[in-house]
C-alpha cells in the first residue's frame, strides 16, 4: 500500500507538504499541489477512508444528481466537463463521487436516499428542481449545491451566465444584418425563461420584432424535437433568416432537417447553437455557438459544496456566475 511517506520521498518534499497538497490546502502552491496529486495517482495512492471517517465523522462521499431525459448521458461534452471538474476537486480533497439514480418528475425521495447512503453533501446537476423530492433534500441539513437553479440566499448555486451568452450571440447575429431571428428553446425551466427573456430584450433593444411564430419549443440535447421545430420554422410564409438552437446537439437535428430540404447552413440560412462542443467545431463550416466553461463550473460547484461540508460554521452561501466565450464558426451569413 502506498503511503504519504512514499509520495513525499518520490516528490522530494516533506510529509506535511504531501498531506496538505492532497487536501487541497491553500498553503501549498497550485503547481506543487498539482504535481503531488498527479504523482499520487500515478503511484496508486488511496486514502484510508475508514480511518479518516472515524476521525472526522464524515464518509468522504458526495452524491451527484444527474437525470438524463434524452439519453445523451455522459457523452454530452458539457455535462462531462462539469462532472470532470467536480471529480478533480473532490479527489484532490480525498472525496469519492457517487451518481444518484432517481426521477424527480415522480417525486423521488432524494433526501431519504442521501441519508441512507450517508453522503456528506450532494451536487445537483440536472433534474426537476421544483419537485418535492428535490426540494426536501435542498431544505434539509445535508449540504447541497445546484447548477443553473438558485433557490435562495441560504443555498449555493453556480450559474452559467446565460444573459451574457445570449447577448453576445445575438449582438453578433444582428451585426451581420439579421432581423428575422427565430428561437428554438428547450423545455420550460428556469434556464429557458432566462434565455428567452435575454433573447427578447436584445431584439427590443435593436427594434426587432419577435412574432410568436418565431418561437418553438423542443428539448435540450435532443436533435429529434429540434428537427421537427426547424421544419415548422422554414415552412412559415416569412421564414427566419437565422435560427437560434437551444444547444449544439439540438442544432445537429436542425442541420439534418435543413439539409433534407437542400438548405445549407452558412450559405442559405444562418444558425447558431449553444455549449461549444467539439463535435460541432469539426463541421464544415464549424457551428457558430457560445462555449460554456464546464470545467470551471464543475470546479466551482465542488469548491462551494466542500466548503459547506468542511466549514459549516463559517460558510457563506453564494450565487456564482460563470461566463463562457463566443465561437464565431461559419454558420452565420452576412446580409449587410
TrEMBL record:
Transmembrane segments: none annotated. It comes from Treponema bryantii. Keywords: DNA-binding, Repressor, Transcription, Transcription regulation. Residues 2-56 form the HTH lacI-type domain. GO terms for molecular function: DNA-binding transcription factor activity; transcription cis-regulatory region binding. This is Transcriptional regulator, LacI family. It comes from the Bacteria. SMART domains: HTH_LACI (SM00354). It holds the Pfam family LacI. Signal peptide: none annotated. SUPFAM superfamilies: lambda repressor-like DNA-binding domains (SSF47413), Periplasmic binding protein-like I (SSF53822).
Amino acid at each position: 500500500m502506498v503511503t504519504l511517506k512514499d509520495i513525499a520521498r518520490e516528490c522530494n518534499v516533506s510529509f506535511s507538504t504531501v498531506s496538505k497538497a492532497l487536501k487541497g490546502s491553500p498553503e501549498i502552491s497550485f503547481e506543487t499541489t498539482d504535481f503531488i496529486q498527479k504523482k499520487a495517482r500515478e503511484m496508486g495512492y488511496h486514502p484510508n477512508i475508514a480511518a479518516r471517517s472515524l476521525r472526522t465523522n464524515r464518509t468522504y462521499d458526495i452524491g451527484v444528481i444527474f437525470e438524463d431525459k434524452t439519453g445523451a448521458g455522459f457523452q454530452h461534452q458539457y455535462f462531462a466537463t462539469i462532472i470532470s471538474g467536480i471529480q478533480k476537486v473532490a479527489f484532490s480533497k480525498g472525496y469519492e463521487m457517487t451518481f444518484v439514480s432517481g426521477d424527480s418528475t415522480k417525486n423521488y425521495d432524494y433526501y431519504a436516499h442521501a441519508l441512507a447512503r450517508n453522503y456528506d453533501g450532494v451536487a445537483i446537476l440536472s433534474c426537476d428542481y421544483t419537485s418535492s423530492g428535490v426540494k426536501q433534500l435542498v431544505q434539509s441539513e445535508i449540504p447541497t449545491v445546484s447548477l443553473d437553479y438558485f433557490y435562495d440566499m441560504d443555498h449555493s448555486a453556480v450559474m452559467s451566465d446565460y444573459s451574457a451568452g445570449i447577448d453576445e450571440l445575438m449582438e453578433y447575429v444582428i451585426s451581420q444584418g439579421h432581423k428575422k431571428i427565430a428561437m428554438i428553446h428547450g423545455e420550460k425551466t428556469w434556464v429557458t425563461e432566462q434565455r428567452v427573456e435575454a433573447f427578447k430584450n436584445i431584439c427590443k433593444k435593436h427594434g426587432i420584432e419577435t412574432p410568436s411564430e418565431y418561437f418553438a419549443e423542443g428539448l435540450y440535447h435532443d436533435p429529434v424535437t429540434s428537427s421537427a421545430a426547424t421544419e415548422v420554422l422554414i415552412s412559415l410564409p416569412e421564414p427566419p433568416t437565422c435560427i437560434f438552437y437551444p444547444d449544439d446537439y439540438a442544432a445537429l437535428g436542425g442541420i439534418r432537417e435543413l439539409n433534407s430540404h437542400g438548405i445549407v447552413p452558412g450559405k442559405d440560412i444562418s444558425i447558431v447553437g449553444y455549449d461549444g462542443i467539439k463535435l460541432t467545431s469539426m463541421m464544415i463550416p464549424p457551428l457558430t455557438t457560445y462555449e460554456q466553461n464546464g470545467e470551471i463550473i464543475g470546479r466551482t460547484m465542488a469548491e462551494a459544496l466542500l466548503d459547506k461540508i468542511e466549514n459549516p460554521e463559517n460558510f457563506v452561501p453564494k450565487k456564482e456566475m460563470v461566463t463562457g466565450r463566443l465561437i464565431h464558426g461559419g454558420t452565420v451569413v452576412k446580409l449587410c
